[in-house]
Design brief:
With about 60 residues, the chain is an all-alpha fold. Helices cover about 40% and strands about 0% of the residues.
């Protein structure tokens, strides 16, 4: 496996599960997996804020 480099200021202590999650390959915003992930996050945000009428509201996630 290729060694991945982290270009952030540090050292920073992070949990093992965070380290594993950040070591995965990037997902392009044009891939189906990205769209599925984003839709899932949007749905969870609506649940979190207890939005009952989902036809009238939409969660908007600004990615970068």
């Amino acid at each position: 496996m290729e060694k991945l480099l982290l270009f952030t200021p540090g050292p920073v202590n992070v949990a093992a599960n965070v380290r594993v999650a950040t070591a995965r390959e990037d997902i392009c915003h044009r891939e189906i997996e990205f769209e599925e992930l984003l839709r899932g996050i949007e749905g969870k945000l609506l649940q979190l804020f207890e939005i009952r009428n989902r036809q009238s509201y939409q969660a908007v996630v600004i990615t970068g």
